[in-house]
Amino acid sequence: QVQLVESGGGLVQAGGSLTVSCAASGSTSRTNAFGWYRQAPGHQRELVAIMSSGGTTTYADSVKGRFTISRDNVQNTVDLQMNSLKPEDTAVYYCNYRALTLPTRVYWGQGTQVTVSS
Fold it and tell me: What is the distance between the alpha carbons of residues 13 and 44, in angstroms, rounded to a whole number?
């Protein structure tokens, strides 16, 4: 099992910045993907940004140029720096960890609320 502990999030005005962080512990895998999804009310959960243990990153088109994902493979942490926030970024942000050594395992954090006021 992998445990995920999220921190950060909160309320910010449009144009502001926030950082959400996640720490993984337990049976982590050297080969993994670690990142963030979000879910707004009435919408499906969607990928925000994810980074592999090899450094490959994927961003949603809606956040490219505004959000930056970074990770520490020794500490097993991932940060999502969110700049130029928009009201449409309001959602619950979920940390996601995928252990890619077979069998593949997927874990989710409990979620942290990000609210952007206009």
Answer: 24
Other CB atoms closer than 10 Å to residue 104's CB: what's the count?
Answer: 12
Task: Round to whole Å and give the CA distance between 85 and 82.
Answer: 7
For 77-86, what is each residue's pLDDT tens digit? 999 999 999 9
Cα dihedral value 90, 53, 28, 75, nearest 10:
-80
What percent of the chain clears pLDDT 90, i.e. is strictly above it?
A: 92
CA distances from 102 to 14, 31, 34 (A): 42, 10, 16
Task: Measure the CA angle with vertex 43, ends 38 and 49; round to 5°.
Answer: 25
Inter-CA distances, 83 with 2, 3, 6, 24, Å: 29, 27, 19, 24
Q: What rounded mean pLDDT belongs to the chain?
A: 96
